[in-house]
Protein 1
Amino acid sequence: MKALLIILALMMASPALADSNLPPAYWANRQLPDPRQEEQAKALMEEIRCLVCQGESIADSDADLAGDMRDMVRRRIAAGEKPPAIRSWLIQRYGAWITFMPPSEPATWPLWLAPLALLLGGALVARARLKTRKRK
Amino acid sequence: MKTLRFVPVALVGLIVVALVWRLANPPDTDVQSAMVGKPVPAFATPAALPGKVSLSSADLADGRPKLVNFFASWCVPCVGEAPVLTMLKQQGVHIVGMAVRDRPEDLRQFLSDNGDPFDRIGSDPESRVQLAFGSAGVPETFIVDGRGIIVRQHIGPIVADDVPALVRAVKEAQ
């Protein structure tokens, strides 16, 4: 009975109106006819952050805005623009945050150096441990 | 050597403290536009409705500072923002609108329900102008000065408390 009530309530609930009534942009979910261009577009879309679902790339996100961004990327690549130019256009507007491939600049050096430092620390710990074991 | 034993425990403790701190202070998910301080990007859009005036970047450099409001009929917070925009208009602020991913019939209904404070409304069906402004959602509002320079970004709906500061900012943007 309770389950039936819950199902009825779910059927009556209307979804939140937070999406556009317009269909997705033309190139949002369509591959470019030229496979080389599509490959370039795909690689770029996988490293551009969705502005709505901020942990996802625009290649993975279902948000309307991500679809519009995919449309923009494919359109520009089809028009002959190079991926680095499109990336820097986006960085000009949203900052380096928009890409999952942070540029190497002083602020991001710790990010690139951290794995090396951790590996080195681990090696030191392992060495110390192995040494004490030998002594026993 | 003995003191070094506590290093891993201390590290784990530090990570836990960092996680708890992040839970208590959730990150700001607003996306600031890097276009503030720069000229408006070049664009030209058709009128969003027959009878409304279209919007292009040239219209934003006509000597009068303005609010450029990115909105949509499908955007719930925009409904709450509409009366506040009307208040701003009554205080002499020029407002132009950019209807993002909208259909004329929905937009017409939205304006007749919530009022129409816009001097012009452009249509941005593929969010291209929105992306060019470095905007990440609706509603978002930019103050553009008389020379067409973006001087400020307001993310999210404008509420009544924001009105005095916005009116002042628009006056200063002459």
Note: Chain B touches chain A at residues 1, 4, 29, 31-35, 72, 74-76, 100-103, 106, 125-128, 130-134, 136-137 (CB under 8 Å).
Protein 2
Amino acid sequence: MRKKYFYTHIVDTSILSLELGDMDLTPKERIHLISLMDANIHHEILDLILSELNPEDKKTFLTYLASEDHDKVWKFLNEKVENIEEKIKKTAEDLKKELHKDIKEVKGNKML
Amino acid sequence: MTQSHYKNLSDRWRARHQDLTKKLWSKHKESLDWLSNNYKQLIAGSLGGLMLLTGQAVNSQPFLHQASALEPSVKKVDKKVFLISDLVKVLPSEVRALDTDEEQKVSDILTRTFGFKVAPVLQGKRLNRNYGLIGAEQHLARYPGDVLSTHFDSEEDSKAYWQSGMAPGLGAWGYFATSGNFLSQLDKDREKYYIAVQTFLSKDFSSRFAEYRDFYKYRKMLVVNPNNGRGIIADIADAGPGESTGKHLGGSPEVMHYLERVDGSLRGPVLYFFIDDPDDKIKLGPINQ
């Protein structure tokens, strides 16, 4: 079961999962690649958020994040960062494009 | 082709993940240090912060940890988290040779973390550096006639590592055994977990060649990826790479895989320190923290 993050409802990675589904991968390999994809998106989004917060707010955010209290995370972020939802969506979209490009390149290179 | 597609993509995404982790720690070090120091309290009853701080999401069995008991998982991750955090404070932002003070601090951190003594200098000898970029080496022939079809102990290993190929030449100390019949488990491990280091750049190497040659032969070293906290006990079985490559050491396919390091434009640094193990008690291979 994939982990649910506080942004899961606004970041749709199904297109990448489907691309991986079309590849000749074992179930274990596919699951591993999906976890890598999730980890990359997660770190990119964390970097975005932490870059928008002052040192004290960073601690508060990390505390809420570690406690997995998604409501508190969103309430806090909406108070502290303007248009945070849009910013997260854009960050995720940009990275998804890069990951998608990686998939296309690997699929396209028959000699790999 | 499945294995190649998978490996290519996982190599790319693991390297990207490590770069992101490094960027995250360098940009937000103070806050992440704070989280590390309050880690146990924060995640009591929850695993929520784990992916933030470690590379564990990128291991080959990404979901197994979630099914295991909380306490062992916390303990296991805790060590890596602190190692990454401690090393970030000491290592320079660029990959360069460490100065004496940095070497000492890193030695202390690694000794404390892994529970055995590591050092940049052993028996009065030292390498040209112990923080550098690692490149990928190929498999070495262990005895006359050892080829890819005889090289692997399992189908799984064969699938994972066949494509790295065999090096055209022998390691710096020749074959590991005189024949397949005399190949011991130690010989196998010495090839499996070997590194190539720039022995020839050691001070006085030419004038004290025989002494250095014997000292470096299968010398055990701790190799650590500072970006994910993974450590492996490796041995020196070859000399290289050349200075012109821009790389500072090389790792066997198995070493590279465990450390989650790749060659080429996505290559990254590792720490490599001598292990002070006079009774030869420490076994070669990955360290399970």
Note: The radius of gyration of chain A is 16 Å.
Protein 3
Amino acid sequence: MTEPAATEPARTGPARTGPARTGPARTGPGATAGRYVGARVQRLEDPRLLTGRGSYIDDHTVPGMLHAAFVRSPVARGGISSVDVSAARAMPGVAAVFTMEDFREICRPTFSTIIGRDAVTPPLRPLADGDVRFAGDPVAIVIAQSRYLAEDAAEAVDLDLEPMPPVLDIETGLATGILVHPETGSNVAAAISAPADDERVFGGAAHVVTETVAQHRYVAVPMEGRGLVASWEPGRGELTIWAATQAPHEMRSYCARMLGLPEHRVRVVMGDVGGGFGQKMFVTREEMAVVLASYRLGRPVRWIEDRAENLLAGGHARQEQATISMATDRDGRLLAARVRHLENVGAYSVPGTGSVGGGVAAFFPGPYRLPLLSFANQAVYTNTCGRCAYRGPWLFETVAREQMMDIVARAIGMDPLDLRRVNVITDDDLPYTSATGVRYERISPAKTLEQAAGLIGYDAFRREQAAARADGRYLGVGLSLYVEPIQTRGPLGSEGAILRIDPTGEITLIMGTASHGQSVETTMAQIVADVLGCEPASIAFIQGDTAIAPWGPGTGGSKSAVIAAGAAQLVAERMRDKLLRVAGHVLEVAADDLELSGGGVHVRGDPEARVSLGQLAEAAYLNPAALPADIEPGLLTTARSVAPPLVLANACHACTVEVDVHTGVVRILRYVVSEDCGPMINPMVVEGQIAGGVAQGIGGVLYEHMVYDGDGNPLTTTFMDYLLPTACEVPDVGYGHVVTPADTPGGYKGVGEGGAIGSPPAVINAVADALAPLGARITGTPLGPAQVLAAVAAAAPD
Amino acid sequence: MYNTVLSHAVAMEGQLVKAAPFSYHAPETLDESLALLAEFGDEAKVLAGGQSLVPVLALRLSRFEHLIDLNRIPALRYVTGTDGVTRVGAMTTQAAIGGSEEVRRRVPLLADATAYIGHFQIRNRGTIGGSLSHADPGAEYPAVAVALDADIVLASVRGTRTVGATEFFTGSFTTAAGPDEVLTEVRFAHRPPDGCAVVELARRHGDFAIAGVACAVELDSAERVQSLRLGLFGVAPVPVRAAGAEQVARGTPAGELDPVAVGHAALAGVSCVSDVHADAGYRERVAAHLAGQAVARAVREAREARHG
Amino acid sequence: MAEHQLEVTVNGRAVTAMVEPRLTLADFLRERLRLTGTHLGCEHGVCGACTVLADGAAIRSCLVFAIQMRGSAVTTVEGLTPEGGGLSDVQEAFRAEHGLQCGFCTPGFVVSVTAWLADHPDPTAEAIREGLSGNLCRCTGYQGIVRAVAAAAAARARREAGHD
């Protein structure tokens, strides 16, 4: 079988449908007419991925590599009496079995560059040391000739534990004397106290509505789990790590510190990665153990996380609740809110404590004029799997607030749409500083609210709903309106790019990104192609190799369209300027009279007077002495973007459902999103990101539930029990677009997390709306059929 | 329920997904397979479609020294209909059963149930023998077998015997088959119903049922219910023949059947199970509702067949 | 445990190898034949990322031991890709309709859809979703995948009509 062409993909169909022009011309110098930006350009990633030629970590082999499997605690909390690895060590094909004892001397304190050295974290030892703190806690690592043999040997490790009563829930964590991490002195991982002077307002308000809203534990589940091959070469003093990571530079510095190596002696290479959603953004304990094992052995060690491990120990998310009081005037205008927010962050959270209290506090007011907010938060450690970042980690602010808006509306006799209309921040209010000090500008929540309501046919639906009720059927509509912060503060605010044209004229774009489904390879090529007047497919894209790529904060947090696009735009413009100057020298014409197009440069108004990129490259590289003194030989430009410290996107989700009150089954009828992520580089990519996020939100509300029993044993560690939605459970999403540019080159805003943020409350509100006439109270998730039926039954007196 | 036991045990065992070593045998005749089974006893396990067994082996929840693969015994794959009986060889795949003209005509309830089994990729390998032997409480085929009073043929070196479906399922994932016996055939008497229906509630399309009903109905010349055969699955450790509902329905004019009453009668005396997906109370409520729906649908089909 | 001789055809080529019985077909294809297009998403038969064709039928290769495939013809995503470059019609439809993002589940979908369309040439939207329900995707929300299947079916129907 011959190999398909590695570079130029054979496009057998039209490259794109017509460009979708959306909104005003882009800001920024040198924005060209835009053949590709704004269009549904087919992806450059696709040919290799569709033909099975992607290179994921499990596809990557390193000569001489050994395979790792972990021995894990079967109990949630306990003392380790002994770990006897002698039998395991003697088994066929076993190279080593390590416990924390073997790593103690070589594992130094380290920290994440992204969150900084001062961030509070639980004690992140690579392996359990003397005691275990959650079911699944890695205790030993077995290194063998194959994964099969490593698992055989793992079974032979004799782990003698003294089980102890675990701390599993928030209430117990706060009340008990048992410490999840004795070193920390408290089960409170983080806390916020930000009271407001609101007694008078609450006392005098026409309406005060109080409710406790809960969100259950569910998890990221990328289709590919974690994995890496770590290779310490003692002779060279170099550590190379191939990894399924969202942030190769982060992994590089973290592991360098851990081993006491200079950063430039550590190389992390990221190939194709099968999704992450935040779970692969930061280095986790198993990854530390694999690196340390390689360091001890001086051999490459590979670990590919299997699905059971991923569900058990890959990082959990979302488990939190809040008691909320909202005060309004008689017309429903919000006067003040009080929020007491509690989070269950598990044992070994990454990054930091896993608390999202700060984000929830800052954005609880959301897109509404809320004058006063009183906020208190506690994040609690428990003997369960620790939290990781998961797509919109702080999204509980939207989940809680949007549910409360509906609860308040029903309590005071207003339609939820009208209550939102009364309170939403409009264009006239901008710029608006929220009660939490966030400055809102360049957002459009009111426009998206109206667009979403129109798309879902809100008024017509209310009539349809009434008719259905008369028929004994329960339909409901749910809205969810939010403002999304794109985190660009500190290290997250800059991305790097290198553009290189080689002597033959071929273009290579090298970026510090770590795209793993976000289509960055294509969208950045669209930007560069527009500036250089070439085809996106002519650009080779390199990312993810720290030896080559400029430092980047990783891909996640909805910031690619902000910082990566900015860097790509800038580096392309610098190359354009260089090319025009070299062309001016070659054609003996002023650079101002020249234009880029068709993979070359021509004299404006005289397309025949042209020179190809290849000819320019020859001139730049192969005859440097002939170049004028003010033109440096070669064709290489670099750039870094700097984003504003905060960029805001916004959207409105609307959803209709039918609830079967005999079975509790919720069927989604229609789903629409009106989103404003500014101008879109590629509308196809934007819509795909939203659709994926919406599916995760629907999954989270109706199907997915990470469950522990009363002893802290997980009950949902296979796909038979942890239920991901299939194509039958997720509807088609309809889209509306509003365009409010950011103050950046291109004006693009991020969209990666928005779908996951806006969807849970849209679905929850729709179910609550459907069951409202029955008096059923819905105050959070999960909303599987049994929970829905229980809510219906609780409302019926018989 | 099984799946939660699986997850819990997985967590306890240490999250392994490569099977433990075993010796592999691929006999080409039934007699060969029986001899191997007799030789190795409970150190051996028979491998049919593998769609249920292989995950168990991969997750190391069970292990066997010997695996006896039945997939190379062509004599076990057939669907025949003679002398008033439809005989299905144990190794006939669910896909083949779903596409069988004989089954569609003579045992339509079995054909209907097939569409609910997992996904087409599963049905391409999964077999009826494997499904019945595995005896998952949430599976469709065992309930159809019980509803239709199917006969299950078991073979060993000691000979062949036939067990009625109701006697065959003895507990959750437990059957009357001895450690040296192989299920070789399932027999359905030709009694094509006037109407039949399979209704189930699963969390997602293709999942095992939380509660399910397979029923077949016959009407007399006056359109009264002459017979109702109803099997429940997903609610109890074994498929349940809802004799109570059958009695309530018998003799009732089709137009006067009360689905709610039928549903309640179907669950009378049934001890429902609880697991991570649903508790007993939920299962009972929903199963009763579905039973009423299934009977109503089957009766509707019967009446339409008559008039259309 | 003793190894067995396996003779199997993979993507049209005869292959002979000695295999341990417990080696799954998925691991055999990936590790022994270096056909890494078939992916492991769960190894317990739910996600469908490991789907291959065995004698034309779509199966989960993590639920079959390699030795069981003796005498069979196995086709992986690599075998469905046109030799010499380019994309099959199903692959092309996925690309045109943005039916993939991270790509990890994609080969499983391509193989499943290729088999499924052969049996369902004129599917309704509902039937398409049912047909896809045995494969999990976490990135796309399935929307682009559903469109891709519909597009591939429509394109095939047009080609058929053109030949009449």
Note: The first strand of chain A starts at residue 66 and ends at 72.
